[in-house]
Amino acid sequence: MKKFIFTLGTTAILSAGFVGAASASTSGTYHVEKGDTLWKVAQKHSVSVDELKDANNLTSNIIYPNQELNVATIKEMTHKVQQGNTLWSISQQYGVTVDQIKEWNGLTSDLIYPGEQLKIQSPNGQAQQSSPSVAQAAPEAQQAQAPAEQAQKEQQQAQAEQAQQQPAESSQQASGKSMTVEATAYTANCAGCSGTTATGVDLKANPNQKVIAVDPSVIPLGSKVYVEGYGEAVAADTGGAIKGNRIDVFVPSEGDAQQFGRKSVKITVMN
After folding, report:
1. Quick one: CA dihedral 139, 141, 142, 146, positive or negative?
2. CB 221 within 8 A of CB 159
3. pTM for this entry
4. Chain-centre distance of CA 132, in angstroms?
5. Cβ of 17: how many Cβ atoms within 10 Å?
6. Which segments of the chain does DSSP mark as H helices, in order?
7. Nearest-angstrom CA–CA distance, 219 and 177
8. Which residues contact 161 (CB under 8 A, 6 or more apart)?
9. CA angle at residue 123 from 122 to 126, to 5 degrees?
10. Which residue, among 65, 75, 133, 108, has the nearest Cα to 224 in the 3D structure?
11. What was the pLDDT predicted at 133?
């Protein structure tokens, strides 16, 4: 848990968390009234006595009428990334921004993987944290679905979230060469598929890797490429039918590849 004494600009953002406290100001401070105790103020603002003392540099439990107390704290939580999660969907769940999550976790791209632990900071712990057990729970009817049906449902959810996330991602793209290409999808889990790309990436061992197959004469192997609706990927594979302005995006299953179909997408070769 981290505690901070907030500046006026920061505490103004947190003021919504204190609505309903009769003497709380909009700046994250509390005006002590006659008869107040630290314990009473702590209960009113859902913090501990120790947190109040730390935030106000108090060495005792004595407070006085008309004294101004800082009642703003930040609590740090951990989110375990689930299948289908994106930075955008996680930011919506906790009421924060994608840039904040990236800063708290030292991320340089929007790529995250199932099982990854992300730090989330929330004013006064107001955001709802979904524990792994709750996030993974499902109604009995859903648990009864065949694995293939469940995987398809998760993929549809992930694609919907990516579509909503697209405007924010597009604004963050690095500058580079942009073009429109015809895109299809492929998987490593098919009959006769080796699962290893032309550059040696083992896709069966890394099913969540963002990889595309390209024509090296158009997009050099090893390039980082932003693909509309797919995200940031590495040009790490080739294909007999991938010639000219064509790409093949890697997806975890054959069902996902069929669902992707054939479409025109905009890409940006970032390096």
Report:
1. positive
2. no
3. 0.37
4. 15
5. 21
6. 8-13, 38-44, 49-56, 87-94, 98-105, 132-136, 140-143, 147-172, 254-260
7. 10
8. 84, 86, 88, 89
9. 75
10. 108
11. 35
Q: According to the model, what pLDDT value does residue 41 have?
A: 85
Token look-up 């920061």 returns 10
Alpha-carbon distance of 132 to 121, in angstroms, equals 18
Alpha-helical segments (H) within 57-146: 87-94, 98-105, 132-136, 140-143
Question: Residue for token digits 């953002």?
Answer: 13
DSSP 131: P
Tokens of 101: 């999550």
Lowest mean pLDDT among 66-70, 169-173, 248-252: 169-173
Rg of the chain's alpha carbons, rounded to an integer? Answer: 25
Three-state secondary structure call for residue 232: strand
DSSP string, 183-204: EEEE-SSSTT---B-TT--BTT
Please state, in angstroms and rounded to a whole number, the distance separating the CA atoms of residues 108 and 99: 10
